Amino acid sequence: MLKKKWKLLMAIPAMGISISLIGCQPGGTAAKGKAISSEELSYRKAPLTVNTAPPPVEFPKAPPGQSKRFQRAYENAPPMIPHSVEGLLPITQKNNACLGCHDPKVAKSVGATPVSPTHFIDFFQLIKGKVVKLNKLDPARWNCVQCHAPQANAKPLVQNTFRPDYRNPETKKKTILNKNVFEGVY
After folding, report:
1. Is there a contact between 77 and 118 (Cβ–Cβ < 8 Å)?
2. What is the DSSP string of 73-123?
3. Which whole number is the average pLDDT over 108-130?
4. Four-residue CA torsion sign, 87, 146, 164, 55
5. pLDDT digits (tens, 9 = 90+) for 50-89
6. Mean pLDDT over residues 85-106, rounded?
7. Domain range annotation of the chain
8. Name one GO biological process term (predicted).
9. Under CATH, what is the fold of the domain 56-152?
10. 121-157 burial by CB neighbour count: b if 16+ within 10 A, else e?
11. What phi, psi does 176 have (nearest 5°)?
12. Given a cut of 60, is residue 29 above it in pLDDT?
């Protein structure tokens, strides 16, 4: 009886190996599907060895204040930049042209989206269990284009089937992250 069980235990892995090797053979059943070329598998649609220029991309030309705002991609998503950034880049810690319009003290008067209140919190202090609100922009938040980007009029490389689920319809146009930034933390 023990000898019979031992033979069965040895036969199962051997069968698995045999089946997988058959699938790797040129005439095996697993290899009969259509092979996908490297061009079809890539977003470039060209071999990696070919120097291919990406298609031209058109960025917004409307100056700040004359463009249509984008709906947020998801609840509390960073707003995208709907206007031209020509002459506004590069952004440095000492020279941030974005704040000329988006500083909360100015934004309302010029019709701009104000910098979120979350950008005036020193999140490094949370390690110590403190919420430290700042009177000026958190030094870790000076590089606006790290999260906010101008939107190009470009054809998507793949179909986007994502559909955002907003718990609050208000968040399609503005953030309420300052109200729920600690949601699930404490």
Report:
1. no
2. SSTTPPPPB-S--TTT-S--SS--TTHHHHSHHHHHHHTPPPPPGGGGEEG
3. 89
4. positive
5. 888 877 888 889 999 899 888 899 999 999 999 999 999 9
6. 95
7. 56-152
8. anaerobic respiration
9. Flavocytochrome C3; Chain A, domain 2 (1.10.1130)
10. beeeeeeeeeeeeeeebbeebbebeeebebeeeeeee
11. -125, 25
12. no
Q: Give the phi and the psi of residue 168 in degrees, each rounded to 5.
A: -135, 120
What's the number of CA atoms in the CB half-sphere (13 Å) around residue 88? Answer: 20
Which helix (H) or strand (E) segment holds residue 132: the answer is strand 132-133
- In the numeric block, the tokens 């990406």 are attached to 54
* 80 class by beta-carbon count within 10 Å (0-12 exposed, 13-18 middle, 19+ buried): middle
Tokens standing for 69?
A: 């705002």
Q: Give dist(CA 151, CA 60) in Å, integer.
A: 7
Place of tokens 């960025």: 59
Q: What is the pTM of this model?
A: 0.68
Instruction: Identify whether the C-beta of residue 65 lies closer than 8 Å to the C-beta of residue 110.
Output: yes
| Listed residue (172, 152, 11, 162) closest to 79, CA to CA | 172
Query: For the purposes of burial, counting CB atoms within 10 Å of the CB of 119, is it exposed (0-12), middle (13-18) or buried (19 or more)?
Result: buried
Closest CA to 96 of 138, 54, 47, 66: 138
Q: How many CA atoms lie within 13 A of 97 on its CB side?
A: 10
